[in-house]
Design a protein that fits this description.
The chain is mainly α. Helices cover about 65% and strands about 0% of the residues.
Length: about 140
């Protein structure tokens, strides 16, 4: 009997998890999606839920389609926090935003792996550092 009880308990837990997740299966790609939402939060400079903004933008996790649409229409820079906008290079912004949007793709299979996300973000950092270094005036060489 203990084996049967354990089996029933596991089935109950799986059923409960299924109901709690609303028929969505959590996976590594779910983590990628969540991380993409975090990247969008960084770009927008606001918390994931903001009651003071228009309804389609209130919940960044649910509104990832909104951010994706802005990205595709070339208007994502309009929602970027002014502090970020003033400090990020165009190349870094493009790489960072592209990574964020890739992470929140509707279908998990279309999302990048976390390894690819890390590589893209490292590339974005290199773009930013390169832009920052090019702004520093070169020291005149002695003649």
């Amino acid at each position: 009997m203990p084996i049967r009880r354990g089996l029933l308990l596991r089935q109950h837990c799986r059923s409960r998890q299924h109901r709690l997740l609303g028929s969505r299966i959590l996976s590594v790609k779910s983590d990628v999606y969540s991380f993409g939402v975090t990247l969008i939060e960084v770009l927008c400079g606001r918390p994931p839920i903001s009651p003071e903004v228009p309804e389609e933008q209130r919940n960044l996790a649910a509104g990832a389609a909104w951010a994706t649409r802005c990205y595709r229409e070339g208007t994502l820079e309009n929602i970027v926090d002014s502090n970020v906008k003033d400090q990020i290079s165009a190349e870094c912004f493009s790489e960072f935003a592209g990574t964020a949007v890739a992470c929140v793709r509707q279908n998990g299979i279309d999302r990048p792996s976390m390894r690819d996300v890390v590589l893209s973000l490292e590339c974005a950092i290199m773009y930013q550092e390169s832009a920052r270094n090019s702004l520093v005036a070169p020291t005149p060489s002695p003649v």
